């Protein structure tokens, strides 16, 4: 639709200052209200079957019945709106529905602010300062609670048959316990998959009291029930019993311990002044071209540091069965499975969102915010770098499974 210059000139002839156009009593706000009221009138005309000012058909009992004034919240603040009525009360407008009090994406603004980690009070202040909108805490809760329906649908969606790589991790969140009413540290489990096409996809999130192999087994079974039949490589953080939980559900999966988690664990045994030197001596182990060379480098490390830090080398040896698969891969694949960096970047987004929250009143409140943060994370780009080279290697190494 094209608006003529003549019409624009007529509309703007009394606009001398910016506020005449954009102010609270300006042309833009008035024009918006008038257009909406005009559209509502057109809707009633279509409903009744006769134009305003005309006589209705003789056999028709329903008539126009004046207007009702309601106030609706929009990006321009709160505005009065005259909604036409009919005698029988059968008119159901589409533009502004009965009971509707918000227009222009106010719900989206609330959800966006909530996803950024703002508190209910902060959201109220933000909407009032920027848009002149006064919203109640109950309204904010109702709008954000609608996200839970989307969470449930997302959490139970069907998944791909095969994922070349799935990275598992957990982070801690303070949540008030429903029974004891005490605030507890609970584990939020995250499964981040890499699809056959090299896209990162969060497969799900789960909240439990503690991170444990038994719970991870229930997660594996849920993934199977949602359609996952095979995982080529699972990257984990070294939790005791975790590899067994994975292989119980996916017997052919190759389990790889996150190297960075091993390095961080090693640093826990070191004094601050020795950390840089110990980290430098660990590097030849995980950068070794083969498992045999890595074992020799581990022996050399142990010979040098066993006297001062006797716990580091044994920690690597205990996890060695889940470390050695790493050395069979090319540099392209090593970059992806070397660490849980992919999920760590997600965790950084989550921690940034969660840091403003001292604690959550319920698990549902935590789930809403974490889900919205995940949704924003995935919007920021899902492609894995240099995936083509990694995909070609995986297709050869896992012949018959990658393309199944």
From TrEMBL:
<feature type="region of interest" description="Disordered">
    <location>
        <begin position="52"/>
        <end position="86"/>
    </location>
</feature>
<keyword id="KW-0814">Transposable element</keyword>
<keyword id="KW-0815">Transposition</keyword>
<keyword id="KW-0233">DNA recombination</keyword>
<comment type="similarity">
    <text>Belongs to the transposase mutator family.</text>
</comment>
<dbReference type="Pfam" id="PF00872">
    <property type="entry name" value="Transposase_mut"/>
</dbReference>
<dbReference type="InterPro" id="IPR001207">
    <property type="entry name" value="Transposase_mutator"/>
</dbReference>
<comment type="function">
    <text>Required for the transposition of the insertion element.</text>
</comment>
<protein>
    <recommendedName>
        <fullName>Mutator family transposase</fullName>
    </recommendedName>
</protein>
<keyword id="KW-0238">DNA-binding</keyword>
């Amino acid at each position: 639709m094209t608006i003529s210059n003549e019409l624009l000139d007529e509309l703007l002839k009394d606009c001398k200052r910016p506020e005449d156009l954009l102010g609270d009593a300006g042309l833009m706000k008035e024009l918006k209200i008038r257009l909406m009221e005009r559209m509502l009138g057109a809707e009633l005309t279509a409903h009744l079957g006769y134009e305003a000012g005309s006589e209705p058909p003789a056999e028709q009992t329903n008539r126009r019945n004046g207007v009702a004034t309601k106030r609706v919240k929009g990006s321009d603040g709160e505005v009065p709106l005259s909604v036409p009525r009919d005698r029988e009360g059968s008119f159901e407008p589409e533009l502004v529905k009965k009971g509707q009090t918000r227009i222009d994406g106010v719900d989206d603004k609330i959800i966006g602010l909530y996803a950024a980690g703002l508190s209910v009070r902060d959201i109220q202040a933000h909407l009032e300062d920027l848009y002149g909108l006064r919203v109640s805490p109950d309204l904010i809760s109702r709008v954000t609670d609608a996200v839970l329906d989307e969470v449930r649908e997302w959490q139970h969606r069907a998944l791909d048959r095969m994922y070349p790589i799935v990275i598992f991790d957990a982070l801690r969140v303070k949540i008030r316990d429903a029974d004891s009413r005490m605030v507890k540290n609970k584990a939020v489990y995250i499964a981040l998959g890499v699809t056959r096409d090299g896209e990162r996809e969060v497969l799900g999130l789960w909240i439990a009291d503690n991170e444990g192999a038994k719970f991870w087994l229930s997660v594996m079974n849920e993934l199977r029930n949602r359609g996952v039949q095979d995982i080529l490589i699972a990257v984990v953080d070294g939790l005791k019993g975790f590899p067994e939980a994975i292989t119980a559900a996916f017997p052919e999966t190759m389990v790889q311990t996150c190297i960075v988690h091993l390095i961080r664990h090693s640093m826990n045994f070191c004094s601050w002044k020795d950390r840089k030197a110990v980290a430098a001596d660990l590097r030849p182990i995980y950068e070794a071209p083969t498992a045999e060379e890595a074992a020799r480098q581990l022996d050399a490390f142990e010979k040098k540091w066993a006297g001062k830090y006797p716990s580091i080398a044994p920690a690597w040896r205990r996890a060695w069965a889940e470390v050695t698969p790493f050395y069979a891969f090319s540099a392209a694949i090593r970059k992806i499975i070397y660490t849980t960096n992919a999920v760590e970047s997600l965790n950084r987004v989550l921690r940034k969102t969660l840091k403003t929250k001292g604690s959550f009143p319920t698990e549902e409140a935590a789930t809403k915010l974490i889900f919205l943060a995940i949704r924003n994370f995935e919007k920021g780009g899902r492609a894995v770098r240099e995936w083509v080279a990694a995909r070609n290697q995986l297709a050869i190494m896992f012949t018959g499974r990658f393309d199944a």
